[in-house]
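Query protein
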Amino acid sequence: MEPVSQWLVLVVKLPAEPSRHRVAVWRELRKIGALSLGQGTWAVPDVPVFADGLDRAVSLTEQAKGQAVTLRAAGRGPDDAARFQELFTAARSADWTEFLADCGKFEQELAKEIRNAKFTLAELEEEEQSLERLRRWHRDLTVRDVFGAPEAAQAGERLRQCAAACEDYAERVFQALHETSGQSW
């Protein structure tokens, strides 16, 4: 893939107190996958998927009586563009690695519930909520992974495995409920 040559750089200056404003802006920029270039300086590829998140970060900054400047930037040459893209993709790789670790935790939790024969509707609901959180996280990561980090394909497969494991657990819960109640479904 050819490196993106245009980037948006956001420079943010916020009052020191209250800290909740800095945290809110930081969270918004992390949520969209912005690349931190240093204190108060963030960059994203100049593609439409990041526009709303940058607008929210600017709005939060202005509401906090801070200052925000968004600049359109390009490297001085193809090496700079490639380096920015490498940094951005490395950050997405780290996000995917964290996602994969959480998939492993989810599967371990299901295995523990099966080992302990904890087949309750309440537990099933909790596991389904955890699976839905993984699905939302996967969607969010997919949107901001504009260059296609190598871990993305593995993450999609792991999410499918998590869904299959949850479906298996649901079958076990309903089977256990059927056995204890003597009713047929």
Observations:
- Helices lie at 19-32, 51-63, 78-115, 121-144, 152-181.
- The chain has five helices and four strands.
- The beta strands are 7-13, 35-38, 41-45, 67-73.
- The longest strand covers residues 7-13.
